[in-house]
């Protein structure tokens, strides 16, 4: 084809569709308190359907908690990890900084002043949890009605396609930084300081030092890693997956060079990248998605790939990034298991509580990677307990309000008709043991928290993704367009 290999997107009819740094699309118009940009809850006194909106923290503590613990032996921890990893390939909603035309420090203030929308800690803890509003898009959509055209929209900084942009980056500067250009071998750059005991490479460190990652108090510093997505050091399984892809790229590049001695470094890099992108698509569509929405829903709503359709806008939907795909937060285990060769707890490096795994890449370098991962217990409330300063459920709720997600967007809406959808067995058991809110709603409509959680969608069950899967299908299926069909 005539497409320049470095920017295949330019060959598409609508090159902006699904491109990095374009607006998240809306399925329904946003609902803001002032109609245009202020989130619900901005003025706490304001009534919604005759009631004050409960603070996100209250909803998080009173509704999003569960006393029960359960075991899920059907799938490994990797199902959760892949979800997080692939969500980072397709969504990153950039947040405003305190310097966006304001003197307020969002890390300190407890007031709602743009761009800060702090979460009040009204449960004995002092102060507020900082919250930066998502950056707004400047683009005005004149094709919509005037009211909608003026509404605040949010951005997706990543490409919407499953294209391994978490490995290669989503702009040329980052892409070049991540490549081993001097090596002239089509490979990715590796860490210059550390290797694993078997000589296998780690990801390179970030350039801005010292980085913010936690450190082992003894010995050398281990900085945050860099990869195509800047959240790479957020957790150990996530970092492990990024590391695996770095190694896989370099392994395939070497093999291709071996059998195609005449190929240029650029050719090796681009061909390897295509293979890695295709592997991301295969794993997501063949192995991941059917387990999440259930094989029947997958067959019904997604089915086999039928070819590239240029009329479909594959951009990630606002409700997908800010709500639906965050269902994964309810599947996070409070404990990260570190097992030995016999699948027993490793004596030297025992299991870790979740908060000890965050932003701690030193553990990968000094304690080794989690080669054996297995799902143990799962409990939403522990997410809250372990992440005291990062109440993920409250953040999700607040983010939904920040984005003006319509409260009932998933319920009885034009989009999702979920009654027909059956949960996959593993997620059925999840919902049986989950929050009262979740239970009640899944029984009735298979949709989590439309009204109970007060106008804000926090989680959607696997089934509601299934029910929205025409849209999901568009998003997923269109990912083939860059690399062509995958068998
Ligand atoms: C230990 C595991 C995880 C941690 C600590 C974590 C943490 C976070 C945090 C802090 C945010 C930003 C919240 C905000 O300010 O709005 C976020 C966003 C998000 N998370 Fe997770 N997450 C984890 C696992 C997962 C999983 C398993 C999934 C899906 C299966 C997932 C999907 C998402 C999505 C889609 C977003 C929105 C991304 C964006 O558009 O910026 N996460 N997560």
TrEMBL record:
Xref: SUPFAM superfamilies: Heme-dependent peroxidases
What Gene Ontology cellular-component terms does the record carry?
Answer: extracellular space
**Gene3D superfamilies registered for this protein in UniProt:** Haem peroxidase domain superfamily, animal type (1.10.640.10)
- Positions contributing to heme b binding: 329
Report the InterPro entries cross-referenced here: Haem_peroxidase_animal, Haem_peroxidase_sf, Haem_peroxidase_sf_animal
Question: Single Gene Ontology BP term?
Answer: response to oxidative stress
Name of the protein in its database record: Thyroid peroxidase
Q: Which organism is it from?
A: Haplochromis burtoni
Name the lineage: Eukaryota, Metazoa, Chordata, Craniata, Vertebrata
């Amino acid at each position: 084809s005539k497409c320049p290999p470095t920017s295949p997107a330019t060959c598409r009819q609508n090159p902006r569709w699904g491109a990095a740094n374009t607006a998240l699309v809306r399925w329904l118009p946003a609902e803001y308190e002032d109609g245009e940009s202020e989130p619900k809850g901005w003025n706490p006194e304001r009534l919604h359907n005759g009631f004050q909106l409960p603070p996100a923290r209250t909803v998080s503590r009173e509704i999003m908690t569960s006393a029960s613990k359960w075991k899920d032996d059907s799938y490994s921890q990797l199902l959760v990890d892949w979800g997080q990893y692939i969500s980072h390939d397709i969504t990153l909603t950039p947040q405003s900084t305190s310097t966006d035309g304001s003197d307020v420090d969002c890390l300190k203030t407890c007031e709602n002043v743009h761009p800060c929308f702090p979460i009040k800690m009204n449960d004995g803890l002092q102060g507020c949890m900082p919250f930066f509003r998502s950056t707004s898009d400047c683009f005005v959509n004149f094709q919509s009605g005037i009211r909608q055209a003026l509404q605040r929209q949010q951005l997706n900084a990543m490409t919407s396609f499953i294209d391994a942009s978490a490995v290669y980056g989503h702009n040329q500067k980052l892409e070049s930084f991540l490549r081993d250009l001097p090596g002239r071998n089509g490979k990715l750059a590796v860490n210059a300081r550390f290797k694993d005991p078997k000589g296998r490479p780690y990801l390179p460190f970030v350039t801005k030092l010292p980085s913010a990652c936690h450190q082992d108090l003894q010995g050398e510093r281990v900085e945050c890693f860099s990869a195509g997505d800047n959240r790479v050091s957020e957790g150990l399984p996530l970092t492990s997956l990024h590391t695996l892809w770095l190694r896989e790229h370099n392994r395939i590049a070497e093999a291709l060079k071996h059998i195609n001695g005449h190929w240029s470094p650029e050719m090796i890099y681009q061909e390897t990248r295509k293979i890695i992108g295709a592997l991301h698509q295969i794993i997501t569509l063949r192995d991941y998605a059917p387990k999440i929405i259930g094989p029947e829903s997958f067959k019904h709503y997604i089915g086999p790939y039928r070819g590239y359709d240029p009329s479909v806008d594959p951009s990630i939907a606002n409700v997908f990034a800010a709500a639906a795909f965050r269902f994964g937060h309810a599947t996070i285990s409070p404990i990260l298991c570190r097992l030995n060769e016999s699948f027993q707890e490793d004596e030297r490096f025992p299991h870790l509580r979740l908060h000890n795994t965050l932003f701690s890449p030193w553990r990968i370098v000094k304690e080794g990677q989690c080669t054996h991962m297995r799902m143990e217990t799962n409990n939403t409330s522990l997410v809250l307990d372990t992440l005291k300063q990062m109440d993920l459920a409250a953040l999700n709720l607040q983010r939904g309000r920040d984005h003006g997600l319509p409260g009932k967007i998933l319920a009885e809406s034009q989009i999702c008709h979920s009654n027909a959808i059956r949960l996959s067995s593993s997620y059925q058991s999840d919902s049986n043991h989950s929050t009262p809110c979740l239970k009640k709603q899944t029984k009735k409509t298979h949709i989590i928290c439309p009204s109970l959680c007060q106008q804000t969608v926090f989680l959607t069950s696997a089934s509601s993704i299934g029910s929205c899967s025409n849209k999901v299908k568009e998003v997923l299926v269109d990912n083939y367009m860059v690399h062509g069909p995958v068998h």
